[in-house]
Amino acid sequence: MPEPPAVTMSATLAADEALARRRRAGEHVVSLASGEIGLPVLPGLRERLGAAADRNAYGPVAGSAGLRTAAAGYWGRRSLPTDPDQVVCGPGSKPLLFALLLAVGGDVVIPAPSWVSYAAQARLTGAEPLAVPTPPGEGGVPDPDALRAAVAKARAAGRDPRCVVVTVPDNPTGTIPSRGTVRRLAEAARDLDLVVVSDEIYTDLVFDPADRAHSPALEAPERTVVTTGLSKNLALGGWRIGVARLPDGPLGRKLGTRLTGIASQIWSSTPAPVQEAAAWAFAEPPEVVGYAAAGRRLHQAVARAVARRFTDTGALLAPVRATCYLYPDFEPLREPLADKWGVRDGDALTELLADRYGIGLLPGSAFGDDPNALRVRAATGRLYGETRTERQAALDAPEPLRLPWIRAALERIDAALGDLAR
Amino acid sequence: MPEPPAVTMSATLAADEALARRRRAGEHVVSLASGEIGLPVLPGLRERLGAAADRNAYGPVAGSAGLRTAAAGYWGRRSLPTDPDQVVCGPGSKPLLFALLLAVGGDVVIPAPSWVSYAAQARLTGAEPLAVPTPPGEGGVPDPDALRAAVAKARAAGRDPRCVVVTVPDNPTGTIPSRGTVRRLAEAARDLDLVVVSDEIYTDLVFDPADRAHSPALEAPERTVVTTGLSKNLALGGWRIGVARLPDGPLGRKLGTRLTGIASQIWSSTPAPVQEAAAWAFAEPPEVVGYAAAGRRLHQAVARAVARRFTDTGALLAPVRATCYLYPDFEPLREPLADKWGVRDGDALTELLADRYGIGLLPGSAFGDDPNALRVRAATGRLYGETRTERQAALDAPEPLRLPWIRAALERIDAALGDLAR
Question: Which residues form the signal peptide (chains A, B) (predicted)?
Answer without folding.
Answer: none
